[in-house]
Amino acid sequence: MASLRLHFLLVLLPAILLLSHPVKSDDKEDNLLQGINSYRASLNLAALTKNDNADCLADEVADQLKSQPCSNTTGSFTVPGTESPFPNYPDLLAHCHLNITDTKDGVIMPVCVPNLDRTLVLSNFTQSQYNEYINNTKYTGVGIGSEDDWIVVVLSTNKPGGSFTRATSAALLPKAGLTFHLISLFLGFFLVLLS
């Protein structure tokens, strides 16, 4: 009986490890979030909370920008924003399983700073045209992505039009992941029946 339980744990442990998603930690992004929240605290505003779906979109936008040279003409755009500089913007949303109606009240703010100097990056958000968004209590969530000299902040709201909620609950699991989950569940059920 103990041998069967050990076997069950040996099968279950890899399944648990494979199901858990590693948390992406990027010092530049974490430092920027900390700096923005410190800035907001100095204005007696609530801290922005991490929004994983906005984070995904920020990563996608940063990836699109990485091959572009730095320029002072880069500005924010609302989501979906008719002025979006990406012809494949709907594809970026789809990659993150986002519905355009749940992102329309958000804002995307790209910044290019050579070597992503920490002080310059923060000042580009707090002492520029972006501070009107950073200072706005309407925004409660944040996603941050970076590539090369580009860093992108995506602000979300706690209202349906800007919550960055995934398009469907089925989109939470990739198809291969769903198959793995079902196989693991079946295997676990089978092993319990054997005991």
UniProtKB/TrEMBL annotation:
Key words of the record: Membrane, Signal, Transmembrane, Transmembrane helix
InterPro entries with a match to the protein in the record: At5g19230-like, At5g19230_dom
Record Pfam families: At5g19230
Transmembrane segments: 176-194
Domain Uncharacterized GPI-anchored protein At5g19230-like, residue spans: 29-155
The name this protein goes by in its record: Uncharacterized GPI-anchored protein At5g19230-like domain-containing protein
Signal peptide: 1-25
